[in-house]
Each structure stands twice: as C-alpha cells, then as structure tokens.
Write a structure and sequence with these properties.
Structural class: alpha/beta
CATH topology of the largest domain: Rossmann fold
Number of strands: 20
Number of helices: 11
CATH class of the largest domain: Alpha Beta
Distance between the termini: 13 Å
Shape: globular
Strand order of the largest sheet: 5-4-3-6-7-9-8
Bound molecules: S-adenosylmethionine
Strand content: 25-35%
Largest sheet: 7 strands, mixed
C-alpha cells in the first residue's frame, strides 16, 4: 500500500452504487448494487432465476400490495413499478441494501426496516422472499414462522432458493407451515416456490438466542454472526486485548455483531462505546445487550459511517467480515481499515482480528507501531494492532 493511501477515497468508493439491470423478459428493471451486497458488482444470482420464472409466466408478477423481502435492494418494487403493478413495501435488514434501494429510486416511504416476524398477524396479502440460508436454519425457521403468521389466509408467498443452499430442507420446513407448496420452476439449481394457505397452528416466531458470553448474558437474533457462541477469531482478539487499552477510552466496535466486544469494552471501563453494524439483526442484538449502559450507543450503518458523532475515537475494535453469503469479498477488508482510520483520532489505536490468509498486514503497512499480538496456538488467525497514521 502506498503512503498516499487515502481512507476517504476508499470509503467514497465503498459508498458508490453500481447501476445494474435486472432483465425480466423484454423489461430491463434498473437496480443498484453496492460493496457487501450479494452478487456485487452484479445482481444476486437469485434474481435472474426469478426473472426467468416471471418471463416464462411460471409465476405471476405482484398482483396485490406486497412485501418485497428479496434482499433489500427493491427488485420487486422496481419491477412492479415498471409493469404498472401494485405498490410494495421493502423489508430491509442491511444498511447497504437500503442505500442501493434508494439509489434505484425506491421511495423512502416504502422502506420498512425489519424482519418477517415483525409483521402483524394477517397483515400481508403477498410477499416475495429470498431467505438468507447461510445465516443458519434457526433464522430461516423464524422467518418462515413470521411469514406464515403475517400472511392472510388467501395470500401467497413466493420464495426463491438454491438446492446447494439447502433448498430441499427449506421446502420441508415450508411445508410444515403452509398447506400448499408448489415448485413453479427448477433451473440451474434454483427453485421458485409458491406457498399458500398458511397453517393456523404455526408457532409464534421466537428469533432470539439466549446464551452466556464471556462478559455476561447475551441475547442475539438468529442469523446474527456468531449468534450463540464466541467466534474463535473474536476470542483471540479478547485474549490479546490489553485491558488498559479500553479503560476511559472512547471505543468504536466496528461490525458489532452480537455486541459482545461492546459489552467487553464497557465492562473494561470504556468511557463510551459506539456499536455499529450494517446488519439490522446485529444492531437489535447489540441494543439488547448494551441498552441502558451509560455511554453505549448502537447505530445501524454500513461503513459509510453516516454517524457524524463517531469521530476522533481512541480505540476501534473489529473482526471484519470477508464473506458475503458464501463468497469471499476482498473489498470489505480495505473498507474496514479505511473506516477505522476515519473514525480514530491521530494516534488512536486499532485492534483487529482476521483470518491469517487475509492481507491486513499489507493494508496496515502505513500505520504506526504495527504489532502482531496473535495469542500462541491460534495459527489460523492474526490479531494486529496499530495506531493511526
Ligand atoms: C465477523 S463479524 C464480527 C461480529 C462481532 N464483532 C464479533 O466479533 O462477534 C463482522 C460483522 O461486520 C458486519 N458488517 C459486514 N459488512 C459491514 C459493513 N459494510 N458495515 C458495517 N458492518 C458490516 C457484519 O454484519 C458482522 O456483524
């Protein structure tokens, strides 16, 4: 990395939206993609599969006011607009996806941050859903319970999933919650499924996992990173962290997940902690864990850091992501380092853990006092600390 490395430029590139077109028959539906979203710089591959099913009339486009839960970028809303169809609401749980949806012209009033289990019983006539099965089956189960409860008796849920993402298992779970399940297309492993007649005896969704973390009781929404355990990398970071580094400090927990590092910082005497995550499930989980603690603030934001008060912090703690779905995405790593540089005061210190194969030592080459503090016996991870250039 050159000494002219400019974190603001990296973050500006991170914030840039890439226009993408979703082809549905002869229609080209304009959408946007962003770093960190599935399929970036293109589309989530589920959308072409869904587009094909729509173009071949295997499934009818939205018929009634509907909920778009196909990944947060507003694909179905944009399609309905192009076809002169009914209005839709966008159920969105990613701050980056929300930015992309707004960039593609989804009205702010159509945005509904949340999850299927938030929707009132019987409030939905129609919904389109792309489950995030890589977030685990307890998340898929809670979302399915949410849909079965929210859907009106005569409503329909259109779902799209891939056989390699556990499509068969998802179908079995869906059949336990809906009386009618019809696979409308199978193509290249993708399956588009129409679910109707929600069963009346579906359990009330319970998406919360209760567990004990190293610093106290945890309450984490299913599908949040490491929802019921301490990630091995995070454990390495906790071991390496010098306790004095946190006492009296203003701390940013960048990509806070369950809120475990925020809780640790508060217990270690941090003056204040900002917990920030792109994922709404992480934000709600962190709120559940640190809410009420003086000095704790949880914010839903991606790395664009549209949180003006998060500036000039003393310490950044992070276990940055490197996957989106099941794909490794390198651009996220540089974005996390740039966001840390932007948030830290001069000489403020970053503590970071990552998979040893990732290029963080190179990304931190222009920082000061770069040290590898990986605890012994953890060869798969690298815990690094450095102070801001
Ligand atoms: C590896 S997890 C670490 C979570 C938690 N700090 C821990 O150690 O258990 C990375 C976190 O970064 C969040 N994340 C991913 N992309 C992000 C982005 N662009 N902006 C902010 N957070 C992001 C993920 O949602 C996830 O919670």
């Amino acid at each position: 990395m050159s000494s002219s490395w400019d974190p603001d430029a990296v973050l500006a590139a991170h914030a840039a939206l890439v226009p993408v077109a979703w082809r549905v028959g002869s229609a080209e539906v304009p959408l946007a993609s962003a770093v960190g979203l599935r399929g970036y710089p293109g589309l989530d591959p589920a959308l072409p599969a869904l587009g094909e099913a729509l173009a071949r009339s295997r499934v009818a486009p939205p018929q009634r006011p509907f909920v778009d839960a196909t990944g947060g970028v507003g694909a179905l809303i944009a399609l309905a607009r192009a076809l002169g169809g009914p209005p839709g609401r966008l159920l969105v749980a990613s701050a980056a996806a929300q930015r992309a949806a707004l960039g593609a012209g989804v009205e702010p009033s159509a945005l509904e941050p949340g999850f299927p289990w938030d929707l009132p019983p019987g409030s939905v006539e129609e919904a389109w859903w792309r489950p995030a099965s890589e977030r685990g089956w307890s998340r898929v189960r809670a979302e399915l319970d949410g849909w079965a409860r929210a859907l009106q008796p005569g409503g329909r849920l259109v779902a799209v999933w891939h056989k390699d993402e556990g499509g068969k298992r998802a179908e079995r779970m869906a059949a336990e919650r809906f009386e009618a399940l019809q696979v409308v297309t199978r193509a290249a492993g993708w399956r588009v499924v129409e679910l109707t007649r929600p069963r009346p005896d579906v359990p009330v969704p319970d998406p919360w996992c209760h567990w004990r973390g190293p610093d106290g009781p945890m309450q984490t929404l299913a599908g949040t990173f490491a929802a019921e355990r301490v990630d091995a990398g995070t454990a390495a970071l906790l071991t390496a962290l010098e306790r004095d580094a946190l006492r009296g400090a203003r701390v940013l927990d960048l990509g806070c997940g369950s809120g475990l590092l925020s809780l640790h910082a508060l217990r270690a005497g941090a003056a204040c902690v900002w917990a920030l995550d792109d994922d709404l499930a992480a934000v709600r989980s962190s709120e559940a864990v640190v809410s009420g603690a003086p000095g704790a603030v949880v914010r839903w934001s991606d790395l664009t850091l549209d949180v003006p008060e998060v500036r000039a912090v003393d310490v950044v703690l992070t276990n940055p992501p490197f996957h989106v779905g099941r794909r490794v995405v390198g651009a996220l790593s540089e974005g996390f380092v740039a966001a840390a540089a932007t948030a830290l005061r001069p000489q403020g210190r970053l503590w970071l853990v990552a998979n040893a194969a990732l290029p963080f030592e190179r990304l931190l080459a222009s920082w000061h006092d770069l040290r590898d503090v990986t605890p012994a016996k953890l060869p798969g991870y690298r815990v690094l600390t450095a102070s801001r250039p």
